Each structure stands twice: as C-alpha cells, then as structure tokens.
Amino acid sequence: MKNVSLILLFSCLAAAADVAPPADQIASAILAAPQDRRAAATVLGYNDKNAVVTLRQGTNDLVCLAHDPREKAFSVACYHKELEPFMARGRELAEQHKGKERHEVRWKEVDDGKLAMPKLPRMLYVLSGKGFDAAKGEVIEPYLRWVVYTPYATPESTGLTLKSGTAPWLMYPGTAGAHIMISPPRK
Prior knowledge:
Elements: H1 2-17, H2 22-29, E1 42-46, E2 52-56, E3 62-65, E4 74-80, H3 84-93, H4 99-111, E5 122-129, E6 131-133, E7 138-140, E8 143-149, H5 155-158, E9 169-171, E10 179-182
Parallel strand pairs: 1-3
Antiparallel strand pairs: 1-2, 3-4, 4-5, 5-8, 6-7, 8-10, 9-10
Helix pairs in contact: 3-4
C-alpha cells in the first residue's frame, strides 16, 4: 500500500512540475495573437492540478489559451471571447469524446440552443511548435495558422472548397462548427 501511495504522490508531483509558471504561460499564449492585440488579451492557463484558470484578465475581445501541459505537441491559441463557451465545452468533452465525436456533441448542443455560438464570423489563431523557450520568449520552430468560425457556412455560401491545403478551405460545412482554415505553407 505504501508503494502505491508513493507512486501516486510522485505522479502528482511530476504532473505539477510540468505546468509552466504563469508568467511563461502568459508569454507563450499571447504569441498566437496579432502583436497589437496581445497586451489586452485575457489569458487562460493551467494550475498545478491541470485545471484551466484565468491567469490574466484582459480588456479586449481576445482570449488566449496557454499550452496544455498534458499534451506533448506544443500549441497555444487565441480566439474571440464569444467563442469561449464553445471552446470551454470542447475542453470538457475532451476527456469523454475524441475526434469528430466531441465536435458532434457540441454541434448538437448549439443546434438545440444549449450552447452559445456566435452567429457572425469569429477568429481563432493557433500557434504550434517544438516548444517554448522562456529565456528568449519565443516558440521553437513556430507555425501560425488561422481559423475563421462561420457557423453553418457551406461551399455555396462562401465559395470555398472543401479540399484541405494551403489555400483557404471550409471544414465541417453546414454545421455549427463550420470554419475556414487558412494554413500557410510550412517553412
């Protein structure tokens, strides 16, 4: 029994050790936002229990989310504050549902009026890389892509293709989670 207790204790300590300090979470998360919008953005991050918490209350319409320490691949994002209910629900559902199933649950909740989703297009910025160098304040091998949420958009309403690539394209057409993907070529 002592061995099990020690293993659990060390597992909890290891998980807590993987959570970056709040200042580093803020510094890395805001890098996804346009430079002129970073200083006033709200920043969500993780505490030592891996729960999402507000690290900084902002004054503009952007919410930035720090890297999830449970995920191996580094990724941070900033999005319009009206997307937060949709994003928060996605984080909740991630424990129970994977892939498209998680999306479908949210879309149904939006369709049923149980989950708020903006009616007008809203922006999401996603910055990924090999990690974050806190000393330099930069993402290692950064890659920035853009997403424009346009609920219920279709190829016919937008003129966009459904074929993924480096040109803008429409993902999940006709659903509450329809969005335009803009993924520039990688360097």
